[in-house]
């Protein structure tokens, strides 16, 4: 049972062989298995199971597996909120800080994948990385950074700023 | 076939349970159900797959188009397919048949069948968002989203799509966006609200905003009224669950000391707020150099000004430190917010459904700056709050209350969203009063 293999299939149909223990970090995979166990308990348990992940692309899935594999050796420090430090290195171990030093699209894809596959520590880490991008930035800086148009008239912008003015 | 059988028998056993007490109609009913069980194959939506021999021969004839469409995930088709799967499992296919039967038998079958079916999937956006709320508070989101279990993992897709085009980063699911905000200081969150309309909607309006602030409040303050006995008394007095919004969060942070401590000024329990933090002086009363009465006259509320006026020595402050039970992090570090218990406080862990607080050491320095400016808040909310407070204090002092010890103490109840007051009677009882009309500013 311990060295059983789970096959995770990406959107493109590429299949990754992952040790069962690693794959079980995903609650989605875990739930799929517990469903199966209930249904056909008499079935051969050593059979290799395949889990389709139709909205996770191969490069993202590869990163996710890399994370889950490393997590087995070194658990990630739980994250304290609200953030006091603006740098990842002070909040999590070096390996995890480096893990999310990827381009923004990859980071967002990782958030979506962690959310979809229901991997709590990975979701925490990736959301933390995005939070750090947001932390301490003005609305204007955020618009530029994420390339979002304001879609607000100058009056509406002023109104929003007034409504949300922080008392000093 | 297995699932159909399970689904059908589930529905049947429920029905039998409900109508087991009836005689005449029950026999007829059971007979009908028996017939359904026997002829379930003919009634099933997929009997053609089981019984039509032509299915096998068609496999060879598959065209290239078929191949592509099976790989290419078309949302509508998926949705339809999954919908089918959902019914297939839940026995909903039989619903119209059963429904009609019940109508004939009792003329009132609708409600029950409806309630049986409605258990299976959350239907409205609000329900989905609510499920996301559970996720934020630590209950696995997917589990609660499918109260009945998903037949296969792929069914999740249709729900992820429902989130799209919302909020700050439209490409990401809403609950992930809220998760991101949950790491941030309220100052940063209100900043995000100014970015564009979608962000503004996410944080300032509608069901998503109440989720955002519920998450942040759970993180920062919820334990005060959920697992601290003093706070639970305050919540009992309110007799109402909080209604989450941005205003609620900031008003709670402004009102918390006076709200939580209201009435806690007797010999058994003497609590006082100084410089944002809360001190439990119950054990210290007897040895306080001033009389216990002096302390009691200012207990049960924020006494920062009085404490500062008396000019307490460094030694006295050191003693106070050892009695500190709740630390307001904003007064220790401006980058921080929320309240944390010290090791001196006892918490009822059994009802900590929300974020369990990490205990902190009492602050070593006492900040004499006025309370309200240190707590994270918004200009508009703070100004409204202070004006209302002044108005209600004036109202309270103009009240004619006989047999009163000390002052009438005014506090804002953030859960009930009302200003209230309390005083000590000559018989040393704590009397709580409400204002007939809250003064609106």
Automatic annotation (TrEMBL), chain A:
GO annotation, biological process: protein ubiquitination; ubiquitin-dependent protein catabolic process
Coiled-coil regions, chain positions: none
Domain SKP1 component dimerisation residue range list: 120-167
Record family assignment: Belongs to the SKP1 family.
Keyword set, alphabetical order: Ubl conjugation pathway
Presence of keyword Transmembrane helix: no
Residues of the SKP1 component POZ domain: 5-72
Glycosyltransferase listed as a keyword: no
Protein name per its UniProtKB record: S-phase kinase-associated protein 1
Organism: Fistulifera solaris
From TrEMBL, chain B:
All residue ranges annotated as the Cytochrome b5 heme-binding domain in the record: 261-330
Signal peptide start-end: none
Origin superkingdom: Eukaryota
Keywords for the protein's UniProt record, in alphabetical order: Heme, Iron, Metal-binding
Pfam families found in the cross-reference section: Cyt-b5, F-box
GO cellular component: membrane
SMART domains in the cross-refs: Cyt-b5 (SM01117)
Occurrences of domain F-box (ranges): 166-216
The UniProt record lists the keyword Transcription regulation: no
Keyword Heme part of the UniProt annotation: yes
GO molecular function: heme binding; metal ion binding
UniProt record similarity statement: Belongs to the cytochrome b5 family.
Name by which UniProt lists this protein: Cytochrome b5 heme-binding domain-containing protein
């Amino acid at each position: 049972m311990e060295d059983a293999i789970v096959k995770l299939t990406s959107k493109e149909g590429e299949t990754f062989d992952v040790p069962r223990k690693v794959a079980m970090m995903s609650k989605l995979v875990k739930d799929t298995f517990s469903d199966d166990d209930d249904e056909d308990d008499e079935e051969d348990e050593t059979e290799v199971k395949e889990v389709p992940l139709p909205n996770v692309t191969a490069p993202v899935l590869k990163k996710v597996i890399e994370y889950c594999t490393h997590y087995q050796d070194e658990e990630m420090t739980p994250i304290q909120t609200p953030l006091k430090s603006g740098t990842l290195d002070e909040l999590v171990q070096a390996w995890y800080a480096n893990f999310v030093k990827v381009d923004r699209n990859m980071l967002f894809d990782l958030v979506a994948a962690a959310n979809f596959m229901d991997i709590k520590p990975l979701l925490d880490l990736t959301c933390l990385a995005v939070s750090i991008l947001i932390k301490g930035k003005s609305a204007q800086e955020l618009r530029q950074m994420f390339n979002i148009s304001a879609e607000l008239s100058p009056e509406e912008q002023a109104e929003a700023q007034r409504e949300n003015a922080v008392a000093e | 076939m297995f699932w159909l059988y399970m689904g059908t028998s589930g529905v049947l056993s429920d029905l039998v349970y409900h109508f087991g007490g009836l005689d005449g109609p029950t026999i007829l009913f059971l007979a009908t159900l028996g017939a359904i069980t026997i002829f379930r194959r003919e009634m099933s939506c997929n009997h053609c797959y089981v019984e039509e021999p032509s299915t096998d021969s068609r496999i060879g004839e598959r065209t290239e188009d078929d191949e592509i469409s099976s790989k290419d995930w078309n949302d509508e088709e998926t949705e339809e397919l999954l919908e089918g799967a959902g019914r297939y499992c839940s026995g909903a296919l039989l619903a119209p048949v059963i429904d009609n039967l019940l109508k004939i038998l009792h003329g009132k079958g609708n409600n029950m069948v409806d309630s049986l079916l409605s258990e299976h999937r959350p239907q409205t956006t609000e329900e989905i968002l609510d499920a996301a709320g559970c996720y934020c508070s630590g209950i696995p989101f997917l589990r609660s989203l499918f109260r009945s279990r998903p037949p296969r993992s792929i069914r999740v897709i249709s729900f992820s799509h429902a989130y799209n085009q919302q909020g700050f980063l439209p490409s990401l699911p809403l609950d992930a966006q809220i998760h991101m905000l949950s790491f941030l200081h309220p100052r940063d969150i209100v900043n995000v609200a100014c970015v564009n309309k979608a962000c503004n909607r996410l944080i300032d309006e509608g069901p998503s905003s109440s989720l955002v602030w519920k998450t942040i409040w759970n993180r920062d303050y919820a334990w005060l009224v959920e697992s601290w006995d003093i706070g639970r008394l305050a919540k009992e007095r309110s007799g109402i669950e909080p209604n989450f919004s941005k205003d609620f969060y900031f008003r709670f942070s402004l009102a918390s000391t006076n709200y939580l401590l209201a009435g806690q000024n007797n010999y058994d329990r003497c609590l006082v707020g100084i410089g944002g933090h809360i001190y439990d002086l119950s054990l210290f009363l007897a040895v306080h150099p001033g009389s216990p009465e002096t302390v009691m006259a200012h207990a049960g509320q924020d006494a920062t000004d009085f404490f500062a006026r008396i000019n307490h020595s460094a030694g006295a402050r050191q003693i106070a430190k050892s009695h500190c039970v709740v630390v307001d992090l904003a007064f220790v570090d401006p980058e921080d917010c929320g309240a944390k218990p010290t090791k001196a406080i006892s918490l009822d862990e059994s009802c900590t459904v929300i974020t369990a607080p990490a205990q902190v050491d009492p602050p070593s320095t006492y900040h004499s700056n006025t309370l309200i400016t240190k707590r994270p808040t918004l200009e508009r909310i703070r100004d409204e709050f202070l004006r209302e407070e002044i108005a209600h204090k004036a109202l309270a002092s103009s009240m004619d209350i006989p047999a009163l010890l000390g002052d009438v103490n005014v506090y804002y109840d953030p859960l009930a969203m009302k200003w209230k007051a309390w005083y000590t009677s000559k018989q040393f009882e704590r009397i709580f009063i409400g204002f007939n009309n809250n003064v609106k500013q």
